[in-house]
Amino acid sequence: MLKQNLQMKKTFAFILFSVLLSCGPEYKMKSESFDWQPYKIGDKLIFKSNTNQIDTIFVKEIKSYTNPDDHLAIFPDYYTTYFITGEITLINPFTSSIGNTVKKDYVNILELSSGKETDYLTLNFKKRRDTLSYSEVTFKISELKLKFKNKSKYESIKVDAESYNKMSFSYDLKTIFWSKEFGYAKYEFKNGHSWELVKFIRNGKNILKE
Asked: Side-chain half-sphere of 12: how many Cα atoms within 13 Å?
């Protein structure tokens, strides 16, 4: 009986400690921050390069995760991040190790994250099988509001990707043109190659031309 009571006390203490660990503040996304995430599942983005190649990107998933900022803290702060990912039709399909022809591949698109004072938008677009390197660009939502203060939602801002690079490593991605309404409007590399959004298909319609 004594051993049972002792075991029950240990179990209760463990549950109480687990509850306390999850009692840190949770910083939820502000509703207006979602206005800066232009994509929906099923969207089809068609980019054309200055060498007349075509990239077709499908928005496949929008997932959210809430995680502590410090897993070792007793009362960690919790933040939510939305991951927008897609699938790209490969210009050069390849054969997998088991002999299948691979015509599509996973692609990062962007992230939207909650914060204490302001939320964040991260442009982390990356084609995994591209030989070029891509730098991530993170904006405070408050910063984006200022950049678009005198612009319509259909206009684009020009972003020097390297100026947001905190690493000493030099990336190939040079410039991103970002639209609040359509997302990536154009991106350019140091080697002179560029890709421009020519169609944004949603529900069978090209909303880029509306």
From this structure: 6
Contact by Cβ (8 Å): 174, 161: yes
Name the residue type at position 147: K
> Which pLDDT tens digit goes with each residue over 24-54?
667 688 889 999 999 999 999 999 999 999 9
Q: What is the C-alpha to C-alpha distance for residues 92 and 105, in angstroms, rounded to an integer?
A: 11
* Measured distance CA(61)–CA(69) in Å, rounded: 24
- CA distances (Å), 148 to each of 49, 120, 125, 156, 180, in order? 26, 15, 21, 8, 8
Q: Which of 178, 126, 121 is nearest to 155 (CA)?
A: 178
Please give the Cα distance from 196 to 53 (Å, whole number): 11
H or E segment to which residue 146 belongs = helix 141-147
User: φ and ψ at 141, to 5 degrees?
Assistant: -60, -35
Report the DSSP beta bridge partners of residue 58: 44, 87
Per-residue pLDDT of 113-163, as tens digits, reads 998 888 999 999 998 778 888 989 999 999 999 999 988 878 999 999 888
The reply to whether the predicted model has a pTM over 0.85 is no
Query: Exposed, middle or buried: residue 175 (CB in 10 Å: 0-12, 13-18, 19+)?
Result: middle
Structure tokens at 197: 């959004």
Q: For residue 154, which amino acid is it?
A: Y
